[in-house]
Specification:
The chain has 393 residues and is of the alpha+beta class. The chain contains 12 helices and 13 strands. It is globular, with a radius of gyration of 28 Å.
Length: 393
């Protein structure tokens, strides 16, 4: 909450350095000013799981905040949008002319995506602030939500009200011995079971046909990161439901392409190899569990996934080639430098801590992993190794 998160602007718009606690306070004040009171503020999804999990390798991408409030009319959704966009003005760097920043300009510059849902069962809106590293700040304003989670491992919510109150009234800083109490919940139903799933990397869900996209992309993401279905899960049946709902929501091949590309960009930053493994896992699930598509539609989707996987491999190969060329050019340049010039251009890339040598029973003496050369430098007028060198000129 106290770490500054960069929100990157498009084009020439400056990057905003935003602390979550300050963003929540500003948004809450502007909502209250517009006559909308908040029930509570919660940290949701992967970030909450990261905090509660016992494993250090728990990964999360977006920072999800849920603002609980009452949305009586669709006009309230517009008030929410205006409050968020106007809040961004408070985080613009000094020297920026705020009077020239209209809500539409801020929306175009900093909003990654925006969703509004208003019907009998779901009344909520989502405003996602862009981060080029995939760690978007997602602000969800919810009155009612029929489905609040995809899998048990991302069903946790941490209520932040006591923490926000502490920031407002406490003059003493927070320490390991002085801190407020916060409450965590699991909307999966059973907190202990969900926490057990999280700490043991288990996949469990209910009624995936209720999830937009069926949870298919998230499911394959969990699989490729080492999660496994629980023993009591009928995973083949669940996969069929996931695939069916995904192709209901994204029936057109271009919609599927856009969805997959956006998901890869948001959830696999600098993870090219894992991205390829993910696509292969997705291909396998779609190939084995899709029952709702015509034959040519299924082949289209499988070919799309294969093409994306080939693109990932091509990018990997290009990166390897570029690195090899840099090393070649570096070595080629070094051959024209004196010994002292070469030393001044060297930097430490990796440090090898050993063992320097190894031995087996019966060996007369240890063997070195690398060939060892020793040189004795003497200040001679001639060099015994070449006709002309830097020491002889």
């Amino acid at each position: 909450m106290e770490t500054a998160i960069p929100v990157h602007g498009r084009g020439n718009f400056p990057t905003l350095e935003i602390k979550l606690k300050e963003l929540v306070q500003v948004v809450r004040k502007k909502l209250q000013k517009d006559g909308i009171d908040l029930r509570d503020v919660r940290l949701n999804g992967g970030a909450a799981s990261y905090i509660l999990g016992s494993e250090n390798d728990q990964a999360y991408n977006d920072l999800d905040l849920i603002f609980g409030l009452k949305l009586t009319t669709q006009n309230d959704l517009q008030k929410v949008k205006d409050s968020v966009l106007n809040s961004l003005l408070d985080f613009l760097p000094k020297g920026v002319n705020k009077e020239r920043m209209s809500p539409s300009n801020l929306n175009e510059a900093y909003v990654h995506k925006m969703v509004k849902i208003y019907n009998d069962t779901d009344r909520w809106s989502l405003i996602s602030l862009a981060n080029i590293r995939g760690r978007n700040v997602e602000l969800k304003f919810a009155d009612t939500m029929k489905r609040q989670f995809e899998f048990s491992v991302d069903s946790f919510q941490i209520i932040l009200d006591s923490l926000l109150t502490f920031y407002e009234i406490s003059r003493a800083p927070m320490t390991e011995h002085f801190y407020p109490t916060v409450v965590a919940e699991s909307v999966y139903g059973n907190f202990d079971v969900a926490l057990y799933h999280l700490n043991n990397k288990l996949i469990a869900t209910r009624n995936p046909e209720e999830i937009r996209g069926g949870g298919l992309l998230k499911y394959c993401n969990l699989l490729v990161r080492g999660y496994a279905p629980t023993e009591d899960a009928d995973i083949r049946l669940l996969e069929k439901y996931m695939c069916s709902r995904f192709f209901i929501d994204f029936s057109d091949i271009m919609e599927q392409k856009v969805k997959l590309e956006n998901y890869l960009a948001d959830h696999f930053v600098d993870e090219d190899q894992l991205k390829h493994d993910y696509l292969m896992t997705l291909w396998s699930v779609v190939n084995e569990s899709t029952i709702c598509l015509m034959g040519h539609e299924r082949r289209q989707t499988l070919e799309l996934i294969q093409q994306l996987a080939q693109q990932v491999l091509a990018i990997q190969e290009q990166k390897v080639y570029n690195k090899q060329m840099k090393m070649y050019l570096f070595d080629h340049k070094q051959s024209f430098l004196t010994f002292d010039q070469q030393k001044s251009n060297l930097i430490i890339d990796q440090v090898y801590y050993g063992p320097f040598a190894y031995s087996y029973p019966g060996m007369e003496r240890p063997q070195h992993y690398y060939t060892v050369y020793t040189y004795d430098y003497t200040n001679q007028s001639t060099c015994p190794y070449c006709d002309v060198c830097s020491q002889c000129v």
